[in-house]
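Internal QA ticket QA-208
Title: Verify multi-chain structure generation after dependency bump
Assignee: T.L.

Test input:
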Amino acid sequence: MLALLGENGAGKTTLMNMLFGHYMPDAGNVEVVDQQGQLVPLALGHPQAALAAGIGMVHQHFTLAENLNALDNIVLGSESLRLFKRNRSGARRKIEGIMEHTGLNVQLDVPVGRLSVGERQRVEILKALYRDVRILVLDEPTAVLTPQEADTLFEKIGAMTREGLSVIFISHKLREVLAFSQRIAVLRHGVKVGEIATKDADERAIARMMVGADTPKIPREDMAAGDDVLQLKDVSIVGRAKRDSITHLDLSVRRHEIVGVAGVSGNGQSALAALISGLVAPTSGTVAIDDAPVSMFAPQNMVQQGIGRIPEDRHHNGIVGDMSVAENMVIERLGDPQIQSRGLLKQDAITANAQRLASEYDVRGPGVHARARLLSGGNIQKMILARVFEQDPKLILANQPTRGLDMGAAAEVARRLLEARARGAGVVLISDDLDEILSLADRIFVIHDGQLVAAESRDREEIGLMMAGQVA
Amino acid sequence: MIRIEPRQAPSRLMTLGIPVLSAVIALALATIPLAFAGASIGQAYVEMFKGVFGSVFAFTEMLTRATPLIFTGLAAALAFRARLWNIGAEGQLYLGAMAAVAVGSGAFDLPAIFLIPVIVILGCAAGAVGMVVPTVLKSRFGADEVVTTLLLNFIILIFLQMMLEGALKDPMGLGWPQSPPILDQGMLPPLMDRMRVHSGLIIALVVAVIAQFMLVRSVWGFKLRAVGENAAAAGHAGIGVNRSLMSVAIVSGALAGMAGVSEVAGLKGYLTADISPGFGYTGIVVAMLAGLSPIGVVISAMFIASVFVGADSMSRAMGVSSYLADLVVSISLLCVLIGGFSARYRITRINRQREQSA
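Actual output:
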C-alpha cells in the first residue's frame, strides 16, 4: 500500500488521473505489469485501457448513479452493449463472493441515493474489484468517513493487499498514512520530492517533506472567556433534507473563545452555518446576539450585527469569481459611506482598501483589479479573511476554513482566528478535521444527525465515536 | 493532439477585436450566398456601402433604424448581465407602444413639454410591467423567465391585435387595424428637416451612456453584476438577489417599452401590429455582439442597422433578396459566439513523442 502525500495542488490527483487515462500526459510513459509479469506500456488517455490493464480508481467525489441500486452501479459499464440479456444473477454471485471475501458489505438492491456515504464508498471500491483490478487507486477515501469507519476500511484493504492487490491512496491525514501504508511518496509542486518506507517515517519528517520546512506550531495561549456573544436556545431548522436540518440545538459562544463543532459532514453543519450567516431563519427557538434577540435573518443584518462569516464553499459562496479582487473585498459593505456616496462607488477608496488589505493579509495574485477567480485557493481564503477580519467582527463563523488549503495557508487561517479570539471575538469553528478542532477550540461540541452534544473529553477516540452517533 | 484550455484573462485587444473581426468574417461569409444569387460581389458591397454612407439621407435612415435597436439592445444587455434572460423585449416594445398611443392620441390635450414626458413615462412603465410579471413568477415560483418572457410576446401581440380592432382602433382609419395618430405635440421632434431621424436617437444615446456609467460606477450596477456572476455569493454577502433582479427587470422592461414609444411617437405616428420587424429579438443579437456592454450596444446596433439598411438598398439596386441582411446578422451572431469562445479558451497543439517500445 503506497500512500501519496502532498499539499493541495501538489499534483496528486493529476498524477492519478493520468494513470487512469482521464488526463493525457504531455510527455512520458506509464508501464504496468501484465498477467505474465512483464512490464508493458499503457495506452495513455484511455480509461478503458487502464481498466483492461487492471487499474481501478475510486474518485474523491463519487461517480455513482444515485437512482440505480448498488448492483447496477457496480456492473455499469462492464457489460456489453450489444447483448440483449443481462446476466444479473451471475453478476450478483460474483459481487457477493467479493463481499464475503473482503468483508466490504453493502445492500445491493437499495438505490445508491439512499445509502450512507460509507456504503457508497464501498460500492465504489466493489466497482473496481468487480473488474478484477490489480492496482486500486483511492483518492482521499476517508475524507467523508468517521475515524472508526476509516480504520475499518483500511484494515479490510490491508487484508486485500496481503493477497496481492496493490493500492495507491491519496490522503491528507498523516495519521492514517502512518498507520496503514507500507511506503510513502511525497509530491510538492508537481515533483516527487521524496519516498520513504513507512516504518522509517514520522509525522514531522513527512510534514517537512511536504512543505519543505518544519511545520510551524501554533502558539495558543490560555484565555478567560468573556460574556456570551451568541446564544442559540432550543433552535430547530426543518430543512429540505436531513442534512439541512438541526433539532433542539442549544449553543452559547462567549467572547475570547473558540467553540469547535466537530462532525462528519452532512450532519447539520450546513444548517447551523446558514442560520448564523443569516441565510435561513429558525423554524423554532431563539437566537440572540449580545443578549438581544435576532428577529431578521438576512445576511445583511448579520453583517451589520458584527458577525463575520467564512463560508464553507469559498468559490461558490465566498467570492464572485468574475469580479475583481478589490470589488470582492467590499462586497459585504456596499452601504458603507467609505465605499459609496449616494449610490455611486468610490473607486479610489475601493482600490486603496484592496491594496492595503492585500499587503496586510498577504493576498498574492495578479493584482487587485484582476478577477478573483485567478487567485489560488489559499489566496482566495486570505482575501475572505481580510474582508471578514477588517470589520472587526465580534463573532466569527468559520465553516471548514482550512479545507483544501495547504499547510502554510491553513496555519495563517489558524493564526488569524486566534488573533480574533485574543481581540475579544467569539469564534464558531465548524470543521470535519478533528485535529484542527483539537488544536484550536476552547470547547468542543459534536454534531450528529442534527443534534449538538458537548464533548466531555478531548480524547479523539471518544469524539470519533460521538461523530458516528454511538454515544449520546 | 490538440487541447482546449481556458485562457487566464482575455486581453483588452481581444474583447474589442473579436466583435469587429466577427462582423468582418460575417460579411466575408455572406459573399457565398451572394455568389449563388448570381450577383457581382464587389458591386453588391459597393451598393450596400452606398446604402448606408452614400448620402445624408441614407445615413440618417441607418440611424433611424438603429434607434429602437439601441433601446432593445440595452434592455437585453442589462438584463443578461444579471443573468435575467429577458427574451420578451418584443412584447414589452408593443406594450410601450400601446401605452404611448393610448395616452398620446388625444386622451390628454397637453402642450408638448408635458405630453411628451407623460407618453415616455407611461410607455416605459408599460414595458416594465411586461418584465416585472415574469420576474415575480421567477422569484416566487421559480418559473423559467426564458419561457415566460418568450411566450408573453405572443400573448401581447394577440392582445395588441385585439386592441387595434377594438379600444385602440382609429375611427377614421377606414377600417384598417391601426390606432389613432399621436397628437402633433406628442411627437418626438425630428432632428433634421425632411429626414426621418428623430430625437429618440438622442434619448437612446444618453440612456446608453447613463447605463454604462451606472453599470460600472454605481452600487446598483455592482449588485447587478454580482448577482449575475454568482447569485449564491451575492446573496451570502448580503445583496438582496430578488430585489436586484426586480430592479433590473424594471429597467430592462422600461427600455424595451421605450423602443416602442420611440417608434410610434418618433417615427410612425400611429400604431399597427407590424411596427417592429423583430426589434426585440434583434436586440438580443445586438447585446451579444456588444459583449453586453451598453456603449458597445450603440456600436453594434449601428452595425446591424447598417446591414439591414444597406442590404435593402443593395437588393433594390441589384435584384437580390433583402433576406441577405438577416443572413449577415445571423452569421455575425454565430461568429461572435465562436469568437467569444476563442477569447475564453485557447486551442493548443501538443507534440508528444510516443516511444513505441515493445
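Spot checks passed. Residues 62 and 108 of chain A are 17 Å apart (CA to CA).
Status: verified.
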